Amino acid sequence: MVVDSSVWIELLSGGPLQSRCQTAIQRQTLRVPTLVLFEVYRKLKGKISEDMAMEAVAALSRYEVLDLTREVAMLAGDFSLEYQLGMADAMVLAHARHLNDVLLTLDNDFRSLPGAVLISP
Question: Is the pTM of this model over 0.90?
Answer without folding.
Answer: yes
